[in-house]
Design brief:
Blueprint: E1 3-4, H1 5-13, H2 15-23, H3 33-51, H4 63-71, E2 75-78, E3 82-84, E4 90-91, E5 100-102, E6 106-110, E7 115-122, H5 133-145, E8 151-158, E9 163-170, H6 174-194
Parallel strand pairs: 1-5, 7-8
Antiparallel strand pairs: 2-6, 3-4, 3-5, 6-7, 8-9
Helix pairs in contact: 1-2, 3-4, 5-6
């Protein structure tokens, strides 16, 4: 098994949905208007940062968010695939021994200052329930792949809600960060060991693809 931030969140949201969608694959999470919109925004931002391709007209209002990213000092990368093994050493995204995977929307490495900046684009209408833990995990993966980096400055860019959630991590925090995420993954592996995937009812049940669940 290889894990990711989104997979761990899916399991914690509802183990039954995680099992049906990600393990046995009986159901598939269909694209929605919102997810398609988010994909289009991500592509527009990537094209702007990499090639200075002007934002399409419908995204022009997001220029203040993407412009600073394109001008930051350092080695700028978009959608870089990162993998980490169970011993927290770096590896390829598709390596057989990969343990956890991540793809930062935006990454800038400044080796001279020993700083990396990472950003994830969000197109939700509110930042009220923003989860900066995503940045924490990404920071740990970046530091695994770039030993010269001592500090990772992260941002969740809620471009529609016009908000930015910032956080910062240093290399000294890595043992604590990895211990936390290993524990969260351990909960999934415990469910795998006993093959028990209890549903966790919530307000999101009506959007769940698992149509034969009694809570849907």
């Amino acid at each position: 098994m290889a894990y990711s931030y989104s997979a761990i969140k899916d399991f914690e949201g509802c183990p039954k949905r995680y099992h049906e969608v990600r393990i046995v694959k009986r159901f598939k999470q269909a694209d929605t208007e919102a997810t398609l919109y988010g994909t289009a925004v991500h592509k527009a931002f990537e094209d702007y940062v990499k090639d200075k391709t002007p934002l399409p007209g419908q995204f022009a209002q997001f220029q203040p968010f993407v412009e600073p990213l394109a001008t930051l000092e350092g080695d700028i990368r978009c959608e870089e695939k990162l993998g980490v093994r169970r011993d927290f050493s770096p590896c390829g995204f598709f390596d057989q021994d990969v343990w956890i995977r991540g793809i930062p929307d935006y990454l800038a490495i400044n080796p001279n200052r020993k700083v990396a900046r990472v950003a994830d684009y969000k197109t939700g209408k509110s930042s009220r329930y923003a989860d900066s833990a995503q940045l924490e995990l990404m920071a740990a993966m970046i530091m695994a792949h770039h030993p010269e980096v001592q500090t990772v400055k992260g941002a969740l860019l809620f471009v529609v809600a016009k908000d930015v959630i910032k956080s910062e991590y240093i290399r000294a925090q890595l043992p604590e960060i990895w211990s936390k995420w290993a524990g969260r993954i351990g909960s999934i592996e415990s469910a795998l060991d006993v093959n028990v995937w209890n549903p966790r009812p919530s307000a999101l049940c009506k959007f769940c693809p698992v149509k034969d669940c009694p809570h849907n």
